[in-house]
Amino acid sequence: LKINITEIDIPCAFGPAFEGERVRGGDLYCQMGGGKTQCTELVKMAEMSEIEDGKVIIVGKDIGDMKEGETLPLGIFIQIAGREFQTDFEPIMERQIHHLINYIQGIMHIGQRDISWVRVSKAAIEKGFTLKDIGVVLHAKFHQDFKKIVDKVQVTLYTNKEDVDKLTAWARSEYKVRDERVDKMTDEDVDTFYSCTLCQSFAPSHVCTVSPERTGLCGAYNWMDCKASFEINPTGPNQPVLKGKVLDPKRGRFEGVDEFIKKASKGAVETYNFYSMVHAPMTTCGCCECIAAMLPSCNGIMTVGRDYSGDTPSGMKFTTLAGVMGGGASSPGFVGHSKFNVTQKKFILGDGGLLRMVWMPKMLKDELYDKINIRGKEMGVENFADMIADETVGITEEDILPFLQEKGHPALTMEPLIG
Ligand code: SF4
Ligand code: ZN
Hints:
This protein is α/β, with parallel strands linked by helices.
């Protein structure tokens, strides 16, 4: 028996019309995540007998227990069972959380995976919004939008720090497995890439093209995920894109991709390169996990993750960079990318690759430490991670240059970044 849900039983208005709506400082009642607390999302497949359809479990405090201005950690754990459901579909369902929570009037959702952020407005509180409504929405919409693969949905919302931390550790190991599914593949191996236009409601001209060696900039979609998404929903946001003629192998420009993005961006974007941030980089939307920026005096680049709120040598914080770059334009000198992409082999290879990296926030460098060293070694530099400056060295180009010189950073002797 397939369940049909037409009404979504929550106290707030709901629909795509509210997707772009912001919850600004003065309207904010409380929030979860966004660097203030941990906020993590995980979708896992379950056995039919293991879960109860439509059940929403709250473990810990709910919104009613919160005072204005308070923050809470949040873990959104969704279990899905279905005769046709596969573990390959987990990341696709997980990525829906972003726009579905945004559909609730007065609630704003930013980010994904373990860097999510939920902002609840005073207006939503007045209407009677509680955390349970997140579960109600996800249950209803997963049934509605994914009838073919979804039979049962159960949602658990954790707000105790220990529970959220436990979920986060598990989620990270799941993300790792998903990311590594494309690890051995190269862009040359396939003749088809996949588009993603899921973010066009926020950034109308934005089109991600996802290749094995360039995961979606949100970090939530890789080539495999887009392929699976296309199989579930052939008219959906992930369409196959035939590479066609290779127009520029170094910077990664493909005739088929250019044709596709011209159409998909309604003429706003004519072309972009997969492997360059200096020349016609890929478009960037506000969900990117990291934003890279050129640092001309160091002949290199930096990148900053969403979870680092401090200053950077580009002169801008992450939020400023995302505000300027995140509208869906191609901005030469800047590009949004996933964390995983940093150590993928094609990462800005047209500009010299990972060896251009001269600055990263310490937390991101530590997270990617071993992978940076492995990739650095492949490119001929031992212990490369230790040559990359971070905020403990400095937050201006001037301050980090002596460190780079002392370490013999390879970017300093590479060909000029611009020109
Ligand atoms: Fe899709 Fe790109 Fe948005 Fe990720 S950032 S959901 S890959 S359009
Ligand atoms: Zn986006």
